[in-house]
Amino acid sequence: MFRPYRLPHGNKKERGSELTGFFSYIHSIVFWFVVFFCSVTIYSVSYLSALFVKNKDEKNRLYQKWARLWGSILADAAMIKVTVSGLENIPADKAVIFTPNHQSYLDIFILLKILSRSFRFVIMRRLFKVPVIGPFITKAGFISLDRKDRKRSILAIHQVIDLLKDNESFVIFPEGKLTKDGTVGEFGRGTSIIIQRSKSPVVPIAINGTFAALPKGSWRIKSGKVTVNIGKPVNFENYYDEVSKLRSLALGSELRKIVVELKG
User: Fold this and answer.
1) CATH of the domain spanning 12-263
2) pTM of the prediction?
3) For a tag site, which of 21, 111, 116, 211 has the least CB within 10 Å?
């Protein structure tokens, strides 16, 4: 429930600070309204347009295009300045695994906007339960990875590997969940296994600033700057020969170091 925002009486500096907070409050309400309206509208239009497409893969690609438009609109609606570096590091001729750290739900919108090539997400299962958004991302071919359900996780991992071998790129958050304090958490084995089995190049991505803008558990967006640093593709050939727990954890640790260095 939203509590009414009251402007206090005080000195000029205090009033300026409170006015900033007031505008942040109003902007946040408007932003979530835009999320709802945009999600309903784009899902409806994409659903209708997909009715004229018979091929399943073409339908997925169509929904992915609408998803990128959806993400672009919502990234702009957040009114946060985003600086991107390293776009030239993204290969145009092969499937890759993008591995960003995960600071905020805003990460999804920003990545949908800035990554120009076609890709799918592997994201938290809870997002698939959100009305409108869940069916939309399902039709776009996004895949849920439930860390608490081992059987489903294994099936999802095999599905991602098969699609990577079929030249489909993916964005995977190796932490598997949102950060609680802005730091880069430990990387789970799931991403490492996908890298080892698919032998796909990895494009590390470091996102910084979205945690300050919209941390986990908050609905209010704060103004600020976000930087997205995209690293050069990395091949982990040294880990392809043995897919054991020890080797997968070692790969995850090495990849995490790369992302942490990119984050700065």
Assistant:
1) 3.40.1130.10
2) 0.91
3) 116
